[in-house]
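Worked Example 4.2. Consider the chain below.
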Amino acid sequence: MFRRHRPQKHDITCQQAVGLVMDYLDDRLAQDDRARLETHLTECPLCTEHLKQIRVTVAAVGHVGYEDLDPQARDDLIDLYRRWSDDRGR
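Applying the procedure from the previous section yields the following structure tokens:
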């Protein structure tokens, strides 16, 4: 008979891991959340790749302020965010 895997206390889902990545990079995670994420990253190559891609994006874009953006670019980004947010709510 097969036993069902019971998640350990440190187990998190990929969705949870993705949600923690920015706080992880900004060093804003509590120590236990950081440990849980790092454990997940050692076990999940897809989330590890996601983290790498976010690091590359942050390095390429740097810290662009709202006022640094062209007004049309700001409007496009706001519109994109609203569409993404609406899609998530469905």
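The helical segments are 14-25, 31-43, 45-61, 71-89. The radius of gyration is 17 Å. Compare this with Example 4.1 before moving on.
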